[in-house]
Amino acid sequence: MQAHAPLTTTPPAYRAIRFLLAVLAACVMLGTATMFLGDFLDYGAESTSIAALQRVAGGLPHLTGVAETPIHLNPYSGYFYWGLAPLMRLVGPADVWLVAFVARTVILLLVAAIFFGAVEFNRSAKLFAISVPAAALTFLMIAALDLGLLLSIRPDLPAAFFELLVFYLAWELLFRKKLALVPAATLVGLAAALACALRLNSLTIFLGVLIALALERRGKMLLWCAASFAAFAAALLALLWLGYSANGLENALLMTQGEFYADLGTVSRVIERAVAGLVVQRLPLYLLVIAGIATLYKSEPAAARLYTCCLLTSYLLAFTGLLRIGGGGNYFHSAVLLGFLPAAAGLDSLFRSSETSGVH
Predict the structure, then answer these.
(1) pLDDT-derived band of residue 237, with 50, 70 and 90 as boundaries?
(2) Helices marked H in the chain — which ranges?
(3) pLDDT tens, 183-207?
């Protein structure tokens, strides 16, 4: 019986992967350059953010009272603008393009920190086996799907950064027991409170952590995490309250009020658009995430359960948020970014399976 030579990935397959990486990288770089060279792209209320940053650069409050003329309404947390205030004062309020360029540069650096942070977490935790091509291709897929929203000047990305930090801290400190209960739960609660202070609805991953702790029957840790979050969130929201002027506070409270669609026909159209744009269009990414978590379950079932809880709460609450007037794709940032590592692992396993099966 004739022996068969071992099957390996053929050079054409490697060339196809490199070609796909090059095309996606070129598209993402072109899109990024277009955003940076333009005045601004009006994703959500980005123009409102730039106007607020101009006011901050000029030493003014980022919003006005509701009775002032001209009125400056703003739906975002003051912490976002106060954090950028030192840079904005260096830039000055006169040049709109320069204000947008500097702010978007900060957001871009934060996007890079999120992805490099995920890679470093995986290197430390050793949860997934991911090759460099798989990680790069997954990153470019996510960037291509959400580039406009990822680089939009608003607090979504800073809030998502702290939400992801909640997940990493929860795994390292609570589930791997590297620290005593109180300091570990305190750090997780602090990260969750910072995410909430930047964007009030940035609690989806933290809720997933609490559910995972409940499933693991870690009631004491769950209570400490919830208590530390409540304490830090109350303090941060009190500081935010004190940071506004009386008129500005009235404006801020007005902008936090949100209504849900009441008309059944409108709700059905919103759901239809969500399914078309956020489910069907991203189905390959979701399948890769599922494949990555399925692989993780064999080696680290506790980590797989934690990922599953956090991803489910993130996606379910994000879809629920679409039923609120003004809800959009930015609600999915945390879920998509949390799925980066499992999706990359799923893609890597696809590469490996095609290699062993001899698929050219």
Answers:
(1) confident
(2) 11-37, 46-57, 78-91, 96-125, 132-150, 156-169, 181-198, 204-215, 219-243, 246-256, 264-274, 283-299, 301-321, 333-338, 340-357
(3) 888 999 999 999 988 887 888 999 9
